[in-house]
Design a protein that fits this description.
The protein has 419 residues and is an alpha+beta fold. The protein is built from 8 helices and 25 strands. The two termini are 26 Å apart. The structure holds adenosine-5'-diphosphate (ADP). GO terms for molecular function: ATP binding; polynucleotide 5'-hydroxyl-kinase activity.
């Protein structure tokens, strides 16, 4: 039987909903409320699928109706929303200075912390609040594990000028995407740092020519890997983007380490995580990655996409791989760094080992070092390889390949049309 619950929320409280089965339909009956910074429209029904986790927060009180027996929901008045609102107010002060004096720039803030502490959610809230003030911030996502902007294994940026859709998130139809090709920076640290620098450079160029972006500022989401080399990646990213503030969510040691290692002009804040964030297991994370790729090709129940499958001949494509075999130091040409092999682009022959592999489409005309630094045109998945006929069957969002250079990733996706 369908369950209908009407809940009255007091001011500064939130209703947390985890959809365990089926779907949950949410409607704002009275008052004002928002989901991660996007305001709900009164009497509009929002549907959340199994696996979703959201919080409906209200500053001034609201009545919410929740329909669906598989929705596990509870109300909490212990939320860090007011802290996040204060962070937003501080960013707004910096924007005002940038607005009145073109020699200043807008805020550059980086969110760091372990996995599942709500970093992406806080980025979404801060972007939404700034859009509600008429700003156009840039959201940078360095978390190659989740791939919120494109598919897992990428880092990128979107230029935001409208609030995130409650169900679909931000409009990612024209993202700036770099292919890292793996879900953890540990798989190729030199490449990760190089791409972070490249992305920072492109963002700086955008801010130099686009005043709205410059004022709106840059909000940066990062990976949850905060120890050892992961920590160094965060320090490098803070430097590359020249951030002036870092918010550490729920990790005192990380806060102290960053205070020690980042320049003193960088403001470092330690903030609590929301009790509503959910800790995901390795398996759940893998499932959510696969769902992300599925969404890239097939869309969502509310905005379906129809991908294509077609065959290409081995001879019609060029496959590039970033990272060559490591040569012993004695064999390296004079002046070459040992690490260079990690960022060397080489050609590989198509073979059956490519089955289920995600490939990035590079705009380059040939396999060259440019493959690394050029933003990608999209992704395809190898559904089948036929060595006899020397053909690959590709799953593609586009009707035909816009370029012949495809870049290997270590990410797999099993295309199941009945999914
Ligand atoms: P991180 O980026 O640190 O890995 P996320 O922002 O992805 O963390 O949050 C983890 C999960 O918790 C997501 O499913 C998100 O929707 C959920 N979540 C975040 N904040 C809340 C909240 N206040 N109530 C309920 N769920 C939340």
């Amino acid at each position: 039987m369908t369950e209908v619950n009407e809940m009255k929320l007091k001011e500064d409280t939130e209703l947390r909903i985890g959809v365990e089965e089926g779907e949950a339909i949410v409607e704002l009956i009275e008052g004002r409320a928002e989901i991660f910074g996007s305001e709900l429209e009164k009497h509009k029904r929002y549907t959340f699928q199994k696996g979703s986790r959201v919080a409906i927060f209200t500053y001034e009180g609201a009545t919410i109706e929740v329909v669906g027996s598989g929705a596990n929901s509870y109300t909490s008045d212990q939320t860090p929303m007011v802290i996040y609102l204060n962070t937003h107010a501080a960013l707004e002060q910096i924007r005002k200075v940038a607005e009145s004096d073109p020699s200043h720039r807008g805020p550059r803030i980086m969110l760091v912390g372990p996995t599942d502490v709500g970093k992406s959610t806080v980025c979404r809230i801060l972007c939404n609040y700034s859009v509600r003030m008429g700003r156009s911030p840039i959201l940078v996502d360095l978390d190659v594990g989740q791939g919120d902007i494109s598919v897992p294994g990428t880092m990128g940026a979107i230029f935001i000028n409208k609030m995130a859709d409650i169900m679909e998130g931000f409009d990612c139809s024209r993202p700036l995407v770099y292919n890292f090709g793996a879900t953890s920076p540990s798989e190729n640290l030199p490449l990760y740092d190089l791409l972070v620098k490249e992305l920072a450079e492109v963002i700086n160029q955008r801010c130099a020519v686009n005043r709205d972006s410059n004022i709106g500022g840059v909000i940066i989401n990062t990976c949850g890997w905060v120890h050892g080399d992961g920590y160094q990646c965060l320090v490098n990213a803070a430097e590359a983007f020249e951030v002036e503030s870092v918010v550490v969510i729920d990790h005192e040691r990380l806060y102290n380490d960053l205070k020690r290692d980042l320049p003193s002009f960088v403001k470092i804040l330690h903030q609590p995580k929301s009790g509503g964030t959910e800790t995901r297991s390795k398996e759940m994370r893998a499932t959510s990655r696969s769902e992300r790729i599925h969404k890239y090709f097939y869309g969502t129940p509310w905005s379906r996409l129809n991908p294509y499958t077609f065959e290409v001949n081995f001879s019609d494509i060029l496959i590039a791989k970033i990272g060559a075999e490591r040569l012993p130091e004695s064999c390296l040409p004079f002046g070459t760094k040992v690490d260079d092999h990690n960022t060397k682009v080489v050609s590989v022959r198509p073979s059956s080992s490519l089955v289920h592999t995600v490939l990035a489409i590079s705009p380059c005309a040939a396999v060259s070092q440019n493959v690394i630094k050029d933003t990608v045109l999209g992704f395809v998945v190898v559904n089948e390889v036929n060595e006899e006929t020397q053909t690959l069957t590709l799953l593609s969002a586009q009707q035909e390949l816009p370029s012949k250079v495809l870049v290997l990733t270590s990410i797999k996706f099993v295309d199941d049309r009945n999914h």
